[in-house]
Amino acid sequence: MPTLAAVLLLAGLLIGRPLRAQTSLLQNAPARQVLSLNGSWNYIIDPYENGFYDYRRQAFDQSATGRGGYYDNQKPSSRQETELIEYDFDKSATLQVPGDWNSQDPKLLYYEGTIWYKKSFTLAPQAGRRYFLYFGAINYEAHIYLNGRKLGRHQGGFTPIQYDITPLLSPTGENFVVVKADNTRRPDAVPTINTDWWNYGGITRDVFIAETPATFISDYKVQLAPNDPNTLAGYVRLEGEGKAGQPVALTIAEAGIKHTVKTDAQGRATFRLPARKLRLWSPQSPTLYAVRLSSGSDVVQDRIGLRTIATRGQDILLNGRSTYLRGISLHDENPLIPGRARGAGDLRMLLTWAKELGCNYVRLAHYPHNETMLRLADEMGLLVWAEVPVYWTIAWENLATYQNAEAQLSDLIATGKNRASVVVWSVGNETPPGEARLKFMTSLVRKARALDDTRLISAALELHRDGYQVTVDDPLGAELDLTSFNEYMGWYVGGKPSEITQYTFAIKYNKPVIISEFGGDALAGYHADADTRWSEEYQEALYQNQLKMLSAIAGLRGMTPWILADFRATRRQHPVYQNGFNRKGLISSSGVKKKAFFVLQEYYRQMARQYE
Ligand code: GCB
């Protein structure tokens, strides 16, 4: 009898069989020579998946010819319409990419299902060059085709997707790419069907074609060795025919570093170098060094910050100094659209608000955010908690679900590993204790450690209560570097805000405590007394008393209250106070700061004085 694991694996391979394996992600892909495919894409709404299955529900792309789906982008061969073609991308409306579809057309606000996208572009391939089609993110499942040929299928709405398209580009230079994007929620997906954020669909991040020489630097990591400010450590990897035994030069001119390594048979080389008198990266002084890697004709430039992060007992040590994480949680959403953040402008607005609040830290909840966000955090001096959407009730027993979560975690780490801002990898949020979940989450923690030994690993846990006694003893906590938990005293539980100062915390682990969430809803502009829910005064009192209550925790080293700004959430249905928004923001969906914003701002001023 084959094991369940073997059957699942085989099923996954057959169903998801890509015609072209996804190539490992190019490090720093946007810094390559790129042809942007952002802008207008024609689209077809296809709730019946008519462009994917025939009328017997057989997938066209699994048929003998592989033809028949909308990805053929068929056109009548003569001006007279003699052939039966029931779609026409070029005569269809357009959506802007990057961007979710929900916020671009009122009839798509609640849409969950398939939308086809098509973009034509001109690119004549040059001999000796390689071309990679790169999508920053597509939510949730994508089938991707170039010139009618399938590149592959990808699951997961927040991580990059990349294919080597060199052999498929048309010699004439005229090409088209078609994407079937499907945001249908599924119980065994990551995240699962139940979340407290909007299920924005579509091609939500940048799309481009990155060009490299035939042999090229595909990956690198340049960071300080764990807990060692005087040693630079990392690796580089080449791909392509000449990848073995090649010299690769690493230059950081401002730090006086010039070092050459030679790749092994797999195209890999590691390095460990003394690096003295570096100006270390920190929120107060976010120094970024110009880093240059070159091999043969390939050159990649980056701007990299160097810092150490570690824990000692209940302290978090940033560059060896005890630090307090003055944080805020945020979604990858611009509340003013409202919709997914579309690029650097939207993201900078969010981080500027966080800086105004007095933050040195942000929790990028609950899924991988845009690579641009991590770079902005580097530049603006904000530490980052980065997370995968292992949220609430995942299908813990399903092997394919685990593999999916692990792939998303690996891609998150691949994308963020050179960013000084990122100090915490989080493997999930509010997952219910139990044996299968512990196994699943522990495997993710170990995977994260194996991939990156230079950052802290955590997860947002839950607590339990007995009278005024709160206990945090989730066994997963033993695996983690930080004790982080969400608590909603004064909102979901625990009585009114004025009562919550009576709670005391028993925390099992001798580790830094970072409160990953607390908060309550307030409708901006609604004023009442501090016992009236939804009022700004209620939220203000909740923050005042939360800060009192939490300050009694000896190991408290930071927090990321929920949340910077109001955000769309389908579960939030109160017709007066919510209207499809989670109103726990300190800033409203029209950009107005609520009273609680100033409570937290004042507390962060004090904490900055105490720790800096
Ligand atoms: C939580 C979740 C977060 C929700 C929040 C809320 O614990 O982690 O995703 O949005 O509570 O508002 O209920």
From TrEMBL:
Residues 217-307 form the Glycoside hydrolase family 2 immunoglobulin-like beta-sandwich domain. SUPFAM superfamilies: (Trans)glycosidases, beta-Galactosidase/glucuronidase domain, Galactose-binding domain-like. Belongs to the glycosyl hydrolase 2 family. PANTHER family: BETA-GALACTOSIDASE, BETA-MANNOSIDASE. It holds the Pfam family Glyco_hydro_2_C. Keywords: Glycosidase, Hydrolase. Residues 36-213 form the Glycosyl hydrolases family 2 sugar binding domain. Residues 311-607 form the Glycoside hydrolase family 2 catalytic domain. This is Beta-glucuronidase. Transmembrane segments: none annotated. InterPro entries: Beta-gal/glucu_dom_sf, Galactose-bd-like_sf, GH, GH2_Domain-Containing, Glyco_hydro_2, Glyco_hydro_2_cat, Glyco_hydro_2_N, Ig-like_fold. It comes from the Bacteria. It comes from Hymenobacter glacieicola. Gene3D superfamilies: Galactose-binding domain-like, Glycosidases, Immunoglobulins.
